[in-house]
Amino acid sequence: MSDIPLYPSERIDDLLTHDLRIIQSDEVFSFSLDSVLLARFCTMPQRGRIIDLCSGNGVIPLLLSTRCKLPITGVEIQPRLADMARRSVQMNQLEDQIKIVESDLRVYAYEVPPGSYDLVTVNPPYLPQSIGMRNQNDHMAIARFEIMCTMDEVVAVASRLVKNGGKVAVVHRASRLAELITSLRAHRLEPKRLRMVHPRAGAEANMVLVEAIRDANPELRVLPPLVVYEGNQYCQELLEIYYGKRSQL
User: Fold this and answer.
1) Is 27 within the bounds of a domain?
2) By C-alpha distance, which of 227, 222, 180, 245 is closest to 33?
3) In whole angstroms, how large is the CA radius of gyration of the chain?
4) Which CATH number does the domain housing residue 200 bear?
5) Structural domain tally of the chain?
6) pLDDT per residue over 183-235, tens digit each?
7) Which of 18, 78, 84, 94 could form a disulfide with 57 if both were Cys (CB 3.0 to 4.6 A apart)?
8) In sequence order, what DSSP letters do the residues of 186-239 get, joined into one string?
């Protein structure tokens, strides 16, 4: 780890309870609960390859490496974030399993054969372009707003990259669920599992997790909701994710 360079404003954070560490910076968009939930929610294939789109600083590939030994690719358009992700992979000695690609996902989708992956995960920008993004630095604006890619473009790329019968897992704002399902189905991705995430009991959902299968028949399982906070602490399920055994992710 001593050979991994850190640049001004960067720090090394522990990544849950998995003996992993990750490079982060307050100047760019750091990972949050949605990435952790997606890495746990997605169904892992028994064999094949995995790709994470909009990979940021590489948190989802790192977390997925605790659930499987399959090759994982992370695609990130921002050079600084892609570099941070590569150094985090190197720091955790996972170069043989995880590859970080600096690329526009819309370009990368045509640099590999269609159907190259068995699982696609994506935590995309949540918000349409708006005046609010003017108050963000470029790194955070690109992570939060659909500047470099729209929801439909992300879904189209995921559909191209995943094999027939393969899975695509997405986390998004609950308020955009209707748009998300419409886009998935338009691109031959049939939603099969859905879970709403609520900050507290009695509060509206603010996130949604959806897993779709390419060219599957319609039948959607709506899983029990996840309520993040019980009183002033995480619910038991999240406590197990953050502080439980490695196998519980």
Assistant:
1) yes
2) 227
3) 17
4) 3.40.50.150
5) 1
6) 999 999 999 999 999 999 999 999 999 999 999 999 999 999 999 999 989 99
7) 84
8) HTTEEEEEEEEEEEETTSPP-EEEEEEEETPPS--EEPPPEEEEETTEE-HHHH
